[in-house]
Design goal:
Blueprint (H helix, E strand, L loop, with lengths): L7 H4 L4 E5 L3 E5 L8 E6 L11 H22 L3 E5 L9 E7 L26 H13 L3
Antiparallel strand pairs: 1-2, 2-3, 3-5, 4-5
Helix pairs in contact: 2-3
Length: 141
């Protein structure tokens, strides 16, 4: 599981780190239109889920569920979107995105056509609350 040349998720965190463990990190992606956009990222360079041993796959998915739960409890969105593509950045990571019916792209995907100009700011206390919930679910890191 070597580092890929010029991989942005190997070269940097990819956003604001909310939680970091030995094999994973959860970051706030800092997307202007979607301020409640988390990514669960494998720390070592891995391309596909099946590149991980089964126990690490389970650990990764537990972090995805913890990120979803933290967003739901903290922000009460209308919907959560989960996705893992890696077409542009072939480093294993999951998108965990809180969505609201009035966000700029809803009901389209976050990369779809923008339908309105209504980004919802992240409440000032949200970062701290998300961090606390991730630590409760995943441990101190």
């Amino acid at each position: 599981m070597s580092t890929a040349a010029a991989c942005p998720l190997c070269e940097g965190d990819g956003g604001e780190v909310l939680w970091r463990g030995e094999r994973l990190r959860v970051i706030l992606a800092l997307e202007a239109d979607h301020p409640a956009f988390l990514r669960v990222v494998c720390n070592p360079h891995v391309r596909e889920m099946t590149d991980l041993p089964e126990a690490q796959r389970a650990e990764l998915m537990a972090a995805v569920w913890a990120a979803e739960t933290a967003l739901r409890h903290t922000l009460r969105p209308d919907k959560i979107n989960l996705a893992s593509f890696g077409n542009v950045v072939p480093h294993l990571h999951w998108h965990v995105t809180a969505r609201w019916g009035d966000d700029p792209h809803f009901p389209n995907p976050v990369w779809g056509a923008r339908l309105r100009d209504s980004p919802r700011p992240l409440p000032g206390t949200a970062r701290h609350a998300l961090r606390e919930q991730l630590v409760r679910a995943l441990g101190p890191g």
